[in-house]
Amino acid sequence: MKEKISAILKTLPERPGVYLMRDSEGKIIYVGKAKKLKRRVSSYFRHSHAIARLNKLVSLIEDISIIRTETEAEALIVEAKLIRKYQPFFNIDLKMSDRYPYVKITNEDFPRLEITRHKSNDGALYIGPFVDAGSIRNLMRLTERYFPLRVCKSRINPDSNKRPCVEYSLGRSMGACAGLCSRSEYRERVSDIILLFEGKQAELVERLHARMNESAQKLEFEKAARYRDTIRAIWKLSRQKISSALQEDLDNETWQVLNHIQELLNLKILPWRIDAFDISHTSGHDTYGCCVVFEQGRPSPNLYRRFKIKSLQDGEINDFASIYETVKRRYKHVIDNSEPAPQLALIDGGPEQLKFAMTAINELGLNLPLIALAKREELIFLPDNPEPLRLSRDDSALQLFQRLRDEVHRFVITTHKNARGKRFRHSRLDDIPGIGRKKASELLVKFGSAKKISELQPQELEKVSGIGPILARKILDSLREQ
Questions:
Q1: Which of 10, 38, 61, 84 gets the most CB atoms within 10 Å of its CB?
Q2: pLDDT tens digits, residue range 97-112?
Q3: Mind listing the domains of the chain with CATH numbers?
């Protein structure tokens, strides 16, 4: 075995990922995936092979690089994309076609849902690929039960005089052919299905919650119960860890930037997924810590997370403690396997912020590369390194780090502003038992402010519909005590 290859094999992890084998000219000649990289790659060099083509491959290998992934499913997707992009000589299966299925939303007035292994330029929407057969089956079952679309392939011309098909009677269709739903209602359901298959369950559940509350207010309790059951079914379905960024094609420029970062920071694995952290508050009020995620050099918003800081008193300012809490809470979810792990994390700040983030990482027992990017001079700080790294402004690594920093700054500022606005919109009337949001709004519209209400006499307040002597006294006592 060549000395360089032997040294590389010793550094490989027993984790999922993709390996790329290169020849003496640096050309990729084979791409493979593995559940355990060290075991799989080492097997090529343990003994000679009965297949001449495999022996030839081993003889030509001069270098091996890897891309760590969170799961074997991610490794399958990355492997397929790299093979289609680089067309390695020793890869056969994936050069000509896709192995993995896609969910297809047909390009029709009333679209249908299909499973296909081939993407066509037919105007349809393709979601995927899906590498876990069980996952796609579970999603299809949930869709058929809670988000049914039409199954017939005939052209739809809604006719209210037409009798709906038997699928409608079984609850498996919206009855579009019989004019039992409008085109906009049908499209709304299609939009729900797209969110479901793209792994954006949180956004979908938020939409369903709004509809459930609206139905309850209209006393449509059966409809509201159906939304409730749908929400429960979605949360029971395990969250997909394949992000939308992995569904995009990998371009040469991104590949070069990630390789550059790996060499620059001396990382053991390619930084396929990078987290970035920042803190925002107003004089210690409404303090939030946020994390954004870039995968393949692109934002993955469905993996963004926000944390209301709990360890500080209201009005207390401590950015270091806030960074510590945010990082620790974020990566507790990695330890319990409910969130994917990054290959690199970036802290918006200097060496002190980096030190507190490292403390959180060490306490969790994680081995995660961390860096900090300081504003103004754009210096990069590394753990246990007193001298910061200074890159030129046109360096591709620095530019990617700046995009990460700017995105997490935008996200945390937006989060903080929304929280602050919500606090300012909160009225003192909201804290009084027996006064709902609707009644509080009526009082504010009629009298102008909580202060003016507190100056009223009980008899004046009793003139408002729904407020008797006891409630009027409770309102005034509460407002005058505050």
A1: 61
A2: 445 678 899 998 889 8
A3: 3-86 (3.40.1440.10), 102-199 (no CATH), 265-423 (3.30.420.340), 428-481 (1.10.150.20)
